[in-house]
From TrEMBL:
Record keywords: ATP-binding, Cell membrane, Membrane, Nucleotide-binding
Molecular functions (GO terms): ATP binding; ATP hydrolysis activity
SMART domains the record matches: AAA
Protein name in UniProt: Fe-S cluster assembly ATP-binding protein
């Protein structure tokens, strides 16, 4: 249930962004309050993943206009690592492999960096080992994940669970999941979704970027937004995702044209 008294966590106003000089985002307005789950849907090329990456500060994307604030803090001039320390987390659609870097070392460094940012006590290797193994049980991950190089040789489902494990450890204020359901079979999808649901609480917020309704069967959003041509053209409740599953996106085009004053 949406808490009417919850505070604004993320506020995006008139966001424009380019990639290699081509404008992709063309005026995005987006507000997320603590405790909420938002889903962003749309066809390929609509700007969904670009929006996710711009929020996280990906260096390939240039923000050319507008504001992005997390807990009132302007993120626009912050580097990706600074945004991460401020509480932004991005789970990638295609997590990269990092050969030679042990997963346990990577996870402990990330965890302790965030702990230090908030003035909290860091964990030594033995303390962290106990801590991370408890988190792994929730995601049905085998202990040998810790000894392997980051994502190297992982299946698609293993990579996505490893992303959600990072989220569980870092406890971000804002978690952005960019097509986390991509490439997952139904069993892996359920495990990942259950992990996300355990991590959702009244003090954080989750933004899901997805093509498909099926993820939203397991992670139920408070709001669904549809992107088209770099803008959010429709926002409604979870029933919007069901309508898209049944009718596709074509019925939104004329409505978007009226709202934006242009024919999409």
């Amino acid at each position: 249930m949406i808490d009417p008294n919850s505070k604004v966590l993320l506020e995006v106003r008139d966001l424009h962004a380019t990639v290699d000089g081509t404008e992709i985002l063309k005026g995005v307005d987006f507000t997320v309050k603590s405790g909420e789950i938002h889903a962003i849907m749309g066809l390929n090329g609509s700007g969904k993943s670009t929006f996710a990456k711009v929020l996280a500060g990906h260096p390939a994307y240039e923000m050319t206009q507008g504001t992005v604030r997390l807990d009132g803090q302007d993120l626009s001039s912050l580097a990706p690592e600074e945004r991460a320390r401020a509480g932004v987390f991005l789970a990638f659609q295609y997590p990269i492999e990092i050969p030679g870097v042990a997963n346990d070392q990577f996870l402990r460094l990330a965890y302790n960096t965030v702990q230090a940012q908030h003035g909290k006590e860091e964990l030594d290797p033995l303390e962290f080992d106990d801590f991370v193994r408890e988190k792994m049980k929730q995601l049905e991950m085998k202990p040998d994940f810790l000894d392997r190089s980051v994502n190297e040789g992982f299946s698609g489902g293993e990579k996505k669970r490893n992303e959600i494990l990072q989220m569980a450890l870092l406890e971000p204020r804002l978690a952005i999941l960019d097509e986390t359901d991509s490439g997952l079979d139904i069993d892996a999808l359920k495990i990942v979704a259950n992990g996300v649901n355990r991590l959702a609480n009244k003090d954080n917020a989750i933004v899901l970027v997805t093509h498909y309704q099926r993820l939203l069967d397991y992670i139920v959003p408070d709001y669904v937004h549809v992107m088209e041509a770099g803008r959010i053209i429709k926002t409604s409740g979870k029933e919007l995702a069901l309508a898209l599953e049944t009718h596709g996106y074509d019925w939104l085009h004329s409505e978007a044209g009226r709202a934006l004053g242009t024919q999409l």
